[in-house]
Write a structure and sequence with these properties.
The complex is a heterodimer of chains A (345) and B (254).
Chain A (H helix, E strand, L loop, with lengths): L10 H11 L16 H4 L1 H31 L6 H32 L17 H18 L5 H13 L2 H6 L22 E3 L16 E6 L8 H8 L1 E5 L20 E5 L11 E3 L4 E3 L6 E3 L5 E4 L11 E3 L5 E3 L18
Helix pairs in contact in A: 3-4
Chain B lengths: L1 H17 L19 H11 L1 H4 L16 H10 L21 H14 L18 H14 L1 H4 L6 E2 L5 E2 L7 H10 L14 H15 L14 H24 L4
Antiparallel strand pairs in B: 1-2
The chains are: A alpha+beta (345), B mainly alpha (254).
Chain lengths: 345, 254
């Protein structure tokens, strides 16, 4: 800093002077002087260290015996409470025996074993000329005796077998397929599919969803699907009812997607797919328990906090003739986390 | 150095020992429903609640309208000490109730007389069925789908946004658990009888009371908060021990 400082005219010359004083190279300072430990000079300290090591080893032995005694004292009697005492006793005993053994060994090495610094130079990696010639000779004799040059059939069949060897690995990769196709963009929801309660599968009447209510929803007929759990992982929906006047923004494109303030949103977080289900009735915030992504229902589940990037997809719903809630269509965009082929849908 | 090591390990152990433990289970409330005196309830309301909720309980800038919230809501809010509000905070905490059970019943009777709303449940319908394995199993499934995301699968509670939280459920009386489901206090949404039927609510209460009485065979439950408390124990206690041991290994003997 002093170099370019205009208010200190002497600065640059000071630096120059110091620069001149620097030698071209530094001598190897070598190792610091050997410092004797207390146990090296004081016999009392040495015998104390010895007693400490012996004490630690004795502690280890005591831990071992305790573990064995604990095994017989706290015999598990079939209930979990007695298993707890048994495992705790045996575990503590064994931990003590091993830990004290290790501490004792290290303490022994640190206090009593020689600690003089030793320098050992690296030797050259290259062998002597004679050794190199001998190695080449071994290779030559080996090649000659195996006859690999004289018997091309053996050589070629060996090369062929080696070339084929890795192929099973590639064949086994086949069961990674088939490619997912369009399963990521479609769920069980389609026009007319009734909304049902998770886990009972009973239908939901619009009149039953009172203000402030939350329903955890699965599509009707989920149990009959080929892979119910995989379908549930995509189709899970959270149903909330709030006063429509609480909506902060109004999207004309989503006009008629709700039933008098009953909104249905995908429960799968757009970050990494956790179930977003912590609904705060007063703030209308939906919180994802995994990474605290927060979605605001009054803004069509726009992300207002956390790592999620996209709003939760809304499921357009309506009521059928009998008053039950039904889906108008599938989600209009893929649910859940982003993936490479998702594009900007 | 060995002292430091022991101190660090001791910190971890002390934390584990001081970690929140489950509250003592409150005995299931048997007995009769108290009959509230509406006139006395109105007197109490005017003296204690009307500053925020307005003299006609129609609400104001500082408090919501109580018309139509029902006796269940009053019984929950006042009976658990959440109301009257102690101070303005993100959430009203549970504390010792300010009113006797009779006074709470009087308040509830007056508020219920304003407009229809959820009633205080019949004691028989919230009685936990500790012996009924089927009810406990069903209650557990309903709880895990509807409640566990906030209250954790064992009812240990958890954090919400901006200082709000879902409280731990151990020690809550069956009546108050029922009333919370019906009325949706504070941040909690409503789970009306069409969503979770009265019998299913009883199953949920049975499940909560059942797990509350389970022994903790794994040793310290660390508040049943799962990875959070266990992780903190591992970081403070075990990692501290590892660091202390590493420093001791690398240090020269004096």
């Amino acid at each position: 800093m002093t170099v370019d400082h205009p208010s200190r005219p002497t600065g640059s010359s000071e630096v120059a002077a110091r620069h001149d004083a620097l030698p071209d190279s530094f001598d190897n300072p070598g190792l610091p002087a050997h410092r004797h430990r207390m146990a090296d000079t004081d016999p009392v300290a040495a015998s104390r260290a010895e007693r400490q090591v012996v004490g630690l080893f004795a502690l280890s032995a005591a831990g071992t015996i305790f573990a064995m005694v604990a095994y017989f004292v706290w015999t598990p009697e079939g209930d979990f409470a007695s298993i707890k005492s048994s495992t705790l006793g045996v575990g503590l005993g064994m931990a003590l025996s091993l830990f004290a053994l290790g501490v004792g060994a290290v303490h022994w090495a640190k206090t009593l074993m020689p600690d003089a610094e030793v320098v050992e130079e690296r030797h050259a990696l290259r062998g002597t000329e004679d050794e190199r010639a001998a190695a080449l000779e071994i290779l030559r004799i080996g090649g000659e005796e195996s006859g690999i040059g004289r018997r091309p059939l053996i050589r070629n069949s060996l090369l062929g077998a080696l070339a084929l060897f890795p192929l099973p690995g590639i064949v086994l990769l086949r069961d990674l397929g088939p490619l997912p196709g369009d399963v990521l963009t479609h769920t069980l929801w389609e026009e007319g599919v009734r909304l049902t309660r998770d886990p009972t599968g009973t239908r939901i009447k619009a009149s039953e969803v009172t203000l402030g209510s939350v329903y955890h929803v699965i599509p009707e007929g989920l149990g009959d699907a080929e892979h119910p759990l995989e379908e549930k992982a995509k189709a899970a929906v959270l149903l909330v009812r709030m006063d429509r006047s609480n909506m902060v923004v109004n999207d004309p494109a989503r006009e008629g997607w709700d039933v008098d303030g009953i909104y249905a949103y995908s429960k799968i977080c757009t970050h990494v797919g956790c179930p977003v289900a912590l609904y705060e009735q007063q703030t209308h915030h939906l919180l994802c328990p995994c990474h605290q992504s927060t979605f605001d229902v009054t803004q069509y589940c726009k992300v207002i906090f956390g790592p999620a990037k996209r709003p939760l997809p809304q499921l357009p719903i309506t009521v059928d003739d009998e008053g039950y809630l039904v889906a108008q269509s599938d989600f209009t965009e893929p649910v859940g986390p982003s993936y490479w082929e998702r594009g900007d849908r | 150095m060995v002292l430091l090591l022991l101190a660090l390990f001791g910190t971890g152990m002390a934390y584990a020992a001081a970690a929140p433990t489950e509250g003592d289970g409150e005995a299931a409330e048997a007995g009769e429903l108290l009959t509230g005196d509406e006139d006395n309830g109105r007197e109490l309301f005017l003296a204690n609640c009307s500053t925020c909720h307005g003299v006609n309980a129609a609400g104001g800038e500082d408090g919501p309208s109580l018309i139509g919230v029902g006796a269940a809501s009053v019984d929950f809010q006042v009976g658990t000490g959440r109301m009257p509000l102690q101070n303005t905070a993100p959430q009203a905490p549970e504390k010792d109730p300010s009113f006797t059970e009779q006074e709470t019943a009087d308040l509830a009777a007056w508020v219920a007389s304003l407009a229809p709303g959820p009633a205080i449940p019949d004691p028989g319908s919230v009685q936990p069925l500790i012996e009924d394995d089927e009810a406990i199993s069903e209650g557990g499934e309903i709880f895990r789908v509807n409640c566990a995301m906030c209250h954790s699968s064992v009812g240990a509670g958890g954090a919400l946004t901006r200082g709000k939280y879902a409280p731990a459920l151990a020690g809550s009386s069956p009546k108050h658990i029922y009333e919370a489901m019906v009325t949706g206090p504070q941040s909690m949404p409503v789970f009306n009888d069409a969503n979770i039927t009265v019998e299913e609510k009883q199953s949920v209460i049975s499940y909560l009371k059942y797990i509350e009485e389970q022994p903790k065979p794994g040793g310290l439950s660390l508040g049943s908060l799962g990875p959070v408390s266990e992780g903190l124990f591992a970081w403070l206690g075990l990692l501290g021990l590892v660091i202390a041991t590493t420093i001791w290994l690398g240090a020269k003997s004096s």
